[in-house]
# Entry
Amino acid sequence: MSDIEDLLKDAFAAKAATVADDGLTHPVPPPHRSFSLRWLAPVAVAVSLVVVASGIMLAVRGLADRPAPAGPYAAPPAAPIERVWPQAVHQVPADGPGGLAFTPTDVVGDLVVGKGEQETILLYDLTRRAFSVLATVNAYTTNLIAGQGHAVWWSGGALWSVPLTGGEPLKLAALEPSPSSLTGLGIANGMVVWSTVDSPVRQVPLSGGGVSEVPDSTGYVLMEWPWASRGRDELLNLRDGSRPTASVPPGRTVWFGCGPEWCADLLEAWRRDGTAARPFPGRPSARLWGWHVVHLIQPDPNGERGSALYDLASGKAGHIMLYPGPSGGVPSLVLGDRATYYRQGDTVTVIDMDALR
# Structure
């Protein structure tokens, strides 16, 4: 039996023992959004609707002869994502300066930040419909995010920043030699904040300066400001040091993720205190994106298997319509915590994950 099948089996068993919403107050306050936080769990995965490629992948085949899902996932198809969240879906040229493929990694306001190649940080202005080069790095670059007027990334064992208006890259802090040690990265309150494996959460001013550690934060993973987590049950407010608790609901033994407010298994989502449970309108892949979005395998209006994105807090879902190109191939959907995208012809469609609220 596969890991997914094990999770699904346990989720069905857990559901039978789950209590209903008892109307209790919720002990975990919502994330504070008065500051602009840009967060990253440094991983992205491509979901191919035709073939399974390397890495963490999901295979979703658009075969009309397959029946629509039944049982716990039976639900009408979601509306197209551009109708549900029109402010979140953007189209940009597939090629950047020099004809190199543009890979978007983040969206902030009317700006899309990404890479034209590993050593070039690019900015696409949605209003001006034009690219600009923010920085030439000349080294392998990953974990590229943007916020509060800056782009921040990992390269060569260090964190770097550059203003979105351009300029010389600034080395903010030396890090472990491998980017895989970075478990969370964000920009909040004029600071770059990050978490690494078995280390305290650290921060440094965007303008440069000394690195400071958050007390008693070793092993915590940065989520949405001001929250960090350790495991599924422990939360830490990085702003004031408080540690709110929420008991694990009766009958819940297996779930694939919890954000600051919501948790999910392969059947449904619920608040951290166990209330407000609601089933998913499609089969979820076992991952939270940006700590609040779940990717669903859901039939499109023609009954073919497709993809939808579901926001845990609002309960809204938007279907991503992927059509075969001239050669008959269906584009791959590349999921990310900050930006999800797919290429089709000379266009890249970018979905701002933070705008799915």
About this structure: Confidence is low (pLDDT under 50) at residues 16-36, 48-69. The chain has one domain: 3-355. Residues 141 and 231 are 28 Å apart (CA to CA).
